[in-house]
Amino acid sequence: MQLNKDLYIIGIGPGNLSDISRRAYQVLNEVDVIVGYKKYIECIKELIGEDQQLYSSGMRKEVERVEKAVELAAEGKKVALISSGDAGVYGMAGPAFELIEKNDISITVEVIAGITAANAAAAVLGAPLMHDYAVISLSDILTPWEQIKKRLKAAAEADFITTLYNPRSSKRKTQLKEAKKIFLKHRSPDTPVGIVRSVGRDGEEIMITTLVEMPLEKVDMLTTVIIGNSNTYISDDKIITPRGYKI
Amino acid sequence: MQLNKDLYIIGIGPGNLSDISRRAYQVLNEVDVIVGYKKYIECIKELIGEDQQLYSSGMRKEVERVEKAVELAAEGKKVALISSGDAGVYGMAGPAFELIEKNDISITVEVIAGITAANAAAAVLGAPLMHDYAVISLSDILTPWEQIKKRLKAAAEADFITTLYNPRSSKRKTQLKEAKKIFLKHRSPDTPVGIVRSVGRDGEEIMITTLVEMPLEKVDMLTTVIIGNSNTYISDDKIITPRGYKI
């Protein structure tokens, strides 16, 4: 395969080598440098060759990694900048394009889509995401909490299936509690809720519960939460949202 | 690879053999039967072996295909039931679980996630989906139009980036026009809009425009429409939604 771009922004999916796209796998095999958060580099370490250069760093260092990737690509290296899930969903695609555009850097870029947490979590829960849905990050580090609350209220009122990203961390515990309260105002306490931790990775945990019973303390930054709509139901160990077919 | 389930419900992604997951590719190679809409079977025809049985049918035959797949799996065949994109998003996972549950059929099932149109379209547009987003199907065949309108209004008011599925067909032309009108009430006429037709397939077309200028007649059932939020902007030939990083 001839790599015809300078920078590839790649979503690696949930974090194993099976749920990655064939295109992403091939490009990751052939680039000169892979840049990413150290835990995501760890997820794909088996495919990294001895001749490939790595640049990894820790949490909150997103802008630094983007700068490094763009710099190396501008120097003539073939670079892969990785995100978990899809790089276009709260991932590295945004800051990369922002940096390139603001500094008028002339490199060619391709985004290679990946399976984002909403879809990966839905797959192990059954079929919860079968109708109109909203994706909301509960992290208020980069977004005012009032804006997030407004979106939670809108999603709850309009009966969207709702997937929560970054729902809770050791330092951010109140947001999920408040989200639950907002949903309980507009949706039945029995609304099915799926909680998936480390989807697709070692130690994956799946819990099926209801809105009123959702155990907040089971949720952390490795967790994705899916709240059903008013038609969603639980059957055996699956969450199912009917699409409307006569079955 | 040992197939340890009876039925695999597989999202093949946008419709080429590169953007499919490695897991989906491997399972599709090894099942006895592949069941799907004839156009999606066409997308993966290169990987189908001579010893594999196919069962394909046309549009609106979703329930028939689900019945066939479940029946074959119950008879002891290893079956793949395919959807384009992600089978859990307006795809075959929902009706399959509904059928299995209602008829108390005892087969084992695995859903293999795929890249849904929202993420595939976002990747070719740049980084439009970088913040909270809603996915709404404009098809009112299975959902009352009033409910869809309510969701459009909620998404527009709460400043969700919004991806429209099934936006317009030869028989369904008014919905997109009405959706545009709803968004124009709550969002600037200059809001970036990306229109992607046949994403990832031969003849892929990408158009970047604005809400007020969105040409309705360019949109059909093969098209995905992404409407930016109030911070989304167009730079060169890309749509970018800032995540909030200082860059």
From TrEMBL, chains A, B:
Q: Name one GO molecular function term.
A: precorrin-3B C17-methyltransferase activity
Keywords annotated in UniProt:
Cobalamin biosynthesis, Methyltransferase, S-adenosyl-L-methionine, Transferase
InterPro entries, sorted? 4pyrrol_Mease (IPR000878), 4pyrrol_Methylase_sf (IPR035996), 4pyrrole_Mease_sub1 (IPR014777), 4pyrrole_Mease_sub2 (IPR014776), Cbl_synth_CobJ/CibH_dom (IPR006363), Precorrin_MeTrfase (IPR051810)
**Can you say what this protein is called?**
Precorrin-3B C(17)-methyltransferase
Domain Tetrapyrrole methylase stretches: 7-214
**BP-aspect Gene Ontology terms:** cobalamin biosynthetic process; methylation
Q: What's its EC?
A: 2.1.1.131
Query: Broadest EC class?
Result: transferase
Its annotated pathway reads:
Cofactor biosynthesis; adenosylcobalamin biosynthesis
Matches recorded under CDD domains: Precorrin_3B_C17_MT
